[in-house]
Amino acid sequence: MGTPEIRRATADDLDDLFSICLLTGASGEDATEFYDDPRLPGNIYAAPYIVLRLGLGFVAVDSEGVVGYVVGTPFTRAFEKECEEDWWPALRVVNPDPGPDFDRNDWNARLRSLIHRPVRTPGELLSEFPAHLHINLLPRAQGQGVGKELIGMMLGSFHVAGVRGAHLGVSTANTRAIGFYRRIGFTTIAETDDTLLLGVQWTGEMEE
């Protein structure tokens, strides 16, 4: 299959991003069985970054197609506002609100709740880590340095945008991903019962 090529993501990649987001949506494992709409995870964690003005993304492509992606934004607060104006309204029409007291074991309800009540990143976190990102790789792309290269491309774009810190969220159950992020310089900045927020900062020129 050769070494995957990294390039900028476009709208033509959306179907692949929806698929990869689903196939890695259970702490890195296939989440297909948990969702009645296979596009639900991608509509939250992938697609808006490709469609909306303030998002950006990169994909890794091998001889069989797209094997992974990173999406994000250097301006989290402004991106949250853009989602509220231009992304969530249409999704709310086709995704019923489960209400605030939904069953936390219902994966569909959990994500539909996020569509109706998106998480607003705390301002104190954004003062040091104003950018954020999401990354997912299919198993055949893991362990080859692809994830590190994708994140490097994204952090480089954040740097060009004048941003000096980025964060991401990861399930506490995804120990492999947590280990990977820590190896490339991310540290824990906040923690809940089931999620770690990890951040990285840089000054001056980005390292190659």
From TrEMBL:
Domain N-acetyltransferase, first and last residues per copy: 4-207
The GO terms this record gives for MF are: acyltransferase activity, transferring groups other than amino-acyl groups
Q: Which UniProt keywords apply?
A: Transferase
Q: Which PROSITE patterns match?
A: GNAT
Q: Which InterPro entries does the record associate with it?
A: Acyl_CoA_acyltransferase, Glycosyl_Hydrolase_84, GNAT_dom
> What is the protein name stated in its UniProt record?
GNAT family N-acetyltransferase
